[in-house]
Amino acid sequence: MTAPKKLFIKTYGCQMNVYDSERMAEALGGEGYVETDTPDDADMILLNTCHIREKAAEKVYSELGRYKGLKAAKPDLKIGVAGCVAQAEGAEIVRRQPMVDLVVGPQSYHRLPDLLAKTQGGARALDTEFPDEDKFGHLKARPKARRAPSAFLTVQEGCDKFCAFCVVPYTRGAEVSRPVDRVLTEARDLVDRGVREITLLGQNVNAYHGIGPDGADWSLARLVRELAKIDGLARIRFTTSHPNDMDDDLIAAHGDCDKLMPYLHLPVQSGSDRILKRMNRQHTAESYLALIERLRAARPDLHLSGDFIVGFPEETEADFQATLDLVEAAEYGSAFSFKYSTRPGTPAAERAQVPEDEKTDRLHRLQALLTRQQRALQDAMVGRDVQVLFEKPGRMPGQMGGKSEYLHAVHVAGADVAPGDLRRVRITASGPNSLTGTLL
Ligand code: 5AD
Ligand code: SF4
After folding, report:
1. Which pTM does this prediction carry?
2. Per the record, GO CC terms (predicted)?
């Protein structure tokens, strides 16, 4: 038997890329590759890239530059670029870095084995099309290995919203949903392999409209309710959502579907209606807050998470203040905030930019407020009982770590629990990044 070839995948960006990397590793597993965690002894290096903010492409080129020595020492080494930079840059990548063997866009991963075969004779392979087929349906079935208790499952890709700052509609293409039976089959398979929590992924996951086994158009809420029937699956989450796609049934599901966790990532980006309009968000600060109110009426303990952009073109101090006001009103359990970053080809790139030091100042002020809120909500968990899905040993000896229903990291010392166990825990202390507690 020949020794397996080694595959090193470096993943950038969002959870959808994490999922894609897992599936690419499985597809290449069929070609005799096993994963390694260092590029040094790899036979193939794959960069799964992200293009959401500036300098992404430059980072990829400088990372590729680091592999020059490896390629010189081992001419058979295959180097591939996947993901959104691959989609955006295409053949330019091979032009700038001729040592790259293949470039594959996010919709063409199922063609990886063919692309790889093409490179065997030293040719370059490039595929950045948007084929009509479901790439996951064409990827080899996942092998039956045991899995960690929490898994991602991509159900939707692409975005039709065209926010004025965002490259996703260009790099990931139009919204496409996977059929319901494919999602259910994959979910059951994950559960058979030890998974107890599934996070449904999509760039715009709540815009999910998959064809059901009955031929009807299924919404995300209907999909969630069906997944909830799977024995052994304890928790369901989904991310990322757009406020305008939170339909009545999905709001209701937060109240009546026990397996749907009380945590929601619902980006708003800005609290200023003027900026929201310029961003082409198609909602107002008030409509967003009204939506949060409805969600909290359905599920009073819902923890809210969000994304914010500061320094969007033409954002004034008053606009920024409106964002701070919205944050005060909404109360976030966690949040991600970014300085606006110009993306060539997007409408906002052409507009009057906010000076960099202004952006930095606003980001610091926003993050200070968000951190305060996050910390206050986390500290308020002390003395409360939560349900923890245990995942892996903590950093301290004898400790086990897991996640609460609110996605807080929770550590318990000296407890007899194994990964995959779901146990009630009383929270006793709140640290900078996690909670500690004792088993009940
Ligand atoms: N500049 C800064 N942040 C951006 N995001 C998307 N595009 C940009 C950009 N051009 C942020 C948004 C989005 C998150 C995934 O990344 O907040 O919700
Ligand atoms: Fe980008 Fe999200 Fe807006 Fe779509 S909804 S364009 S993915 S920020």
Report:
1. 0.91
2. cytosol
